[in-house]
Design a protein that fits this description.
This protein is of the alpha/beta class and 198 residues long. It has 5 helices and 9 strands, in the order ββαβαβαββαβαββ.
Length: 198
Amino acid sequence: MPDHYYSSNPGAEHDRRILEAELRGGKLSFVSDAGVFSKQGVDYGSRVLIEAMEFSENAAILDVGCGYGPIGLTAARLAPAGQVTMIDINERAVELAKENAERNRINNVTVLQSDLFQAVLGKRFDVILTNPPIRAGKEIVHSIFDLAFDHLNEGGALWVVIQKKQGAPSAKTKLESLFSRVEEVTKDKGYRIFKATK
């Protein structure tokens, strides 16, 4: 079976490259590589989520499926007095995210390899951000929603980006079964941003 970006240890030949991106008014520089999600540049869905997400500057934030780091590192810049934990099952993505935190001199982040939420069991967050791994299947995506609920503080919010054609309606129904309030914050080119408040 071929590797996917949600493999724990992708075997793809390395193809490291430098990407520059302007996100929320700040420039970030990323190293990306083969075997990770959206290696050519920050994907559109992540950009839509980054533009929409809102939280206090001292929030405790979790980025689930962080890849090489665009969402979590932008969040860390927007919450300079907060702390961002970034998790991904993909060992290569985790190493890149650590490298990219250093590269951009962002210090309020912790990057951990984690199958779903295993590395943060028992921890609670004010905000959870995710561009979920749609190709891993609906069961995995919905289990991220279940686990996010358990890992949020009361009044905390899960922010999700998902494409309409890749299951946004069923994602919204699932979120509504868990959370007291679910809003569609924005939509852009088929991408939906949901904010689910506990």
